[in-house]
């Protein structure tokens, strides 16, 4: 309509919905680029349009949900770039958080762990390991970049307080759930353990045997 002025709040709400649609219903407030005042956010929350997930991240109540909502929200918080535009390897779920994302419940996780770098400050309890991850060492699960099975096992074998049977149970879970195969995992572990000169298939066999024995 000629002469119609689109309300500023409507533009902000349109951006909110566009971001939420591509991010499992979640939006980091920083992604709104200061288009939304605290007052408007409070009004949306009072009207039950949005709800807080963690400090700095909200969920559109009519939108989708994420099975690992806190983990996904923390990843969103790390950068104002929309999730679907981020490079795969900038900040990758890793270590115990990767094991959790794979559904390997035998490895308990305290806090959240990533590898790479975060462009914004993250909450206490979040560990960012300042180590690069190659694209061929990553996969994507539920919209989250995560270290592949071999890289995850190698990370957890590196001074993380897990014994061989713990690692064997994790490997067994990764294989049984179809995330990898024993042959592929063994081959990839040889590369991951190159610095220690371990034979991947032999290490994997020993770990699986330790897990079977308890």
Structural topology:
Elements: H1 8-22, E1 26-28, H2 38-46, E2 50-54, E3 57-60, H3 69-77, E4 91-93, H4 95-101, E5 112-116, E6 126-129, E7 138-141, E8 144-147, H5 149-157, H6 164-176, H7 182-192, H8 200-212
Parallel strand pairs: 5-6
Antiparallel strand pairs: 1-3, 2-3, 4-5, 7-8
Helix pairs in contact: 4-5, 5-6, 5-7, 6-8, 7-8
Please describe what this structure looks like.
- The protein is of the alpha+beta class and 214 residues long.
- Helices cover 40% and strands 15% of the residues.
- The chain has eight helices and eight strands.
- A three-stranded antiparallel β-sheet has the order 1-3-2. It has a three-stranded mixed β-sheet with strand order 4-5-6.
- The longest helix is centred in the N-terminal third of the chain and has 15 residues, at 8-22.
- The model has no long low-confidence stretch (mean pLDDT 91).
């Amino acid at each position: 309509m000629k002469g119609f002025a689109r309300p500023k709040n409507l533009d902000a709400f349109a951006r909110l919905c566009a971001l939420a649609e591509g991010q499992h219903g979640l939006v980091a407030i920083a992604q709104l680029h200061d288009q939304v005042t605290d007052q408007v956010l409070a009004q949306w929350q009072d009207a039950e349009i949005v709800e807080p997930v963690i400090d700095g991240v909200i969920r559109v109540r009519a939108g989708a949900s994420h099975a690992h909502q806190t983990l996904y929200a923390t990843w969103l918080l790390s950068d104002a770039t929309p999730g679907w535009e981020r490079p795969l390897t900038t900040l990758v779920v890793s270590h115990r958080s990767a094991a959790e994302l794979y559904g390997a419940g035998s490895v308990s996780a305290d806090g959240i762990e990533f590898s790479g770098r975060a462009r914004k400050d993250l909450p206490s309890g979040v560990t960012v390991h300042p180590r690069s991850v190659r694209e061929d060492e990553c996969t994507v699960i539920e919209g989250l970049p995560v270290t592949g099975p071999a890289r995850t096992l190698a990370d957890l074998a590196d001074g993380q307080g897990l014994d061989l049977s713990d690692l064997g149970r994790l490997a067994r879970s990764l294989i049984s759930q179809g995330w990898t195969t024993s042959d592929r995992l063994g081959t990839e572990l040889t590369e991951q353990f190159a610095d220690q000169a371990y034979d991947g298939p032999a290490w994997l066999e020993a770990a699986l045997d330790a897990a079977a024995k308890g």
